[in-house]
Amino acid sequence: MRDIRVGEGGNAAMPLRIFEGKAEVEAVRRLTPEILEADLRLLEPAEFPFEAGQWVSVPFGPKTVRAYSVASTPVSRRRITLCADVTPGGAGSRWFQALTPGQVVEFKGPTGGFVVNRADPRRPLFVAEEIGIVPIRSILWDLYQTGFGRSATLIYWCRDPSWLAYDAEFRLLSRRYPPFEYVPVVRDPVGGWQGEKGEAPDLVERTVPSVQGLIAYVSGGGEMIKKVREVLMAKGMERKAVKWEKFW
Fold this sequence. Notes:
This protein has helices spanning about 90-95, 135-145, 165-175, 200-205, 220-235, and strands at about 1-5, 20-30, 35-45, 55-60, 65-70, 80-85, 105-110, 125-130, 150-160, 180-185, 195, 215-220, 240-245. By secondary structure, the protein is of the alpha/beta class. The chain has 2 domains: about 1-110, Elongation Factor Tu (Ef-tu), domain 3; about 125-245, 3-Layer(aba) Sandwich (Rossmann fold). The strands form 2 sheets. It has a 7-stranded antiparallel β-sheet. Strands 11-10-9-8-12-13 form a 6-stranded parallel β-sheet, with helices on both faces. It starts with a strand and ends with a strand.
């Protein structure tokens, strides 16, 4: 969840129709103590075509709008799943926490250019920070469930293991599709954590020896995006080869 953004990291928005729609809440789940997920069944329009990685906006008033990335994939056009970190406690957090099955919500979308061009021959590197994982979750499942077949890497950073909302899913994805490499990393390795420790930019520095033939998709906070971009550009990557989605 975040305010409507100004830039999309150099990607052009996809040429899809923008809908002013309505949907009924079917289920609400708590993925972690801080992160909620909601399934919405489309009412108007009956189907909602979008590109994996895009988002919808929800109006709370004439001047208050919040954007939520779609966590589900475009395969399901009659239902979409939204996901939000509710710890900020603002209007968007309170709205998401109050969602109940049967409730009708209004939205507008799809919007956003944080999408993957399948024709691009470069190998994707995904870097996500906490709730910034949502659009990447949609992208990765969409790619591999529709025959992508090529290698890709995800570095997923969280402050501690309890924030790794989709950890089990990505471990499953890496087993089911061996070309996909999943690297979770946490700052505070509590609870017997055995994986990578530290910050996302440092892990990119250590584990990406070359940027030749690479394209990066980075999603999360602005400071993390800036540092990861600097690391990759120092290795020789062009600025336009780093696509980003800023959440805060």
